[in-house]
Amino acid sequence: CKTKVGALISKRTVEIGRDMAEQIIARDPTGLQKTRYGLLGDVYREMRTNLLRPVVIVDYEREAYLHPVEDVRITFDMSLRSGLSSVDLFNRQLPTVCPHDRNVEILEVKFNNYLPGYIAGLLRGVEAERSAVSKYVLCRRFEPLG
Question: What is d(CA 83, CA 24) in angstroms, rounded to the nearest whole number?
């Protein structure tokens, strides 16, 4: 679960088994409220009160690096694919498509207070567009409006 308050982003995760994943995919939150994980209780509440449901598969390959100075996290997200409107997560034959018009890699650079100059210098030669990229939003672009 990713939460953004102003410029601060926090993430909470919990590992679940395939049975529970299939239950959530089937839009059945029964039992989530009884687990010892608060995050699953939150998912239960969202599925019941706000009709939260799975809508798209977002698939990509990630190459990640961590530098201890200022906790710099650099990730390359490659081969972004959308499962279109399918949520058939365990179907190995599921057709997917690239949501980009061209082959693009998503470079994310995150840090705490400042980006060390020697890392900023390395990035100066990179042809890039500075923007907030939502892989989720990109992968939903094929859905019909309405």
Answer: 17
Tokens of 5: 């308050």
3-state secondary structure of 50: coil
What are the tens digits of pLDDT across the range 75-131?
Answer: 999 999 998 878 999 999 999 999 887 777 888 888 888 889 998 898 887 776 667
* Tokens describing residue 72: 């710099």
Q: By three-state DSSP, how is residue 11 classified? A: strand
Place of tokens 């840090």: 111
Beta strand pairing call for 2-5 and 8-11: antiparallel
Give the count of beta carbons closer than 10 Å to the beta carbon of residue 125.
Answer: 7
pTM of the model: 0.77
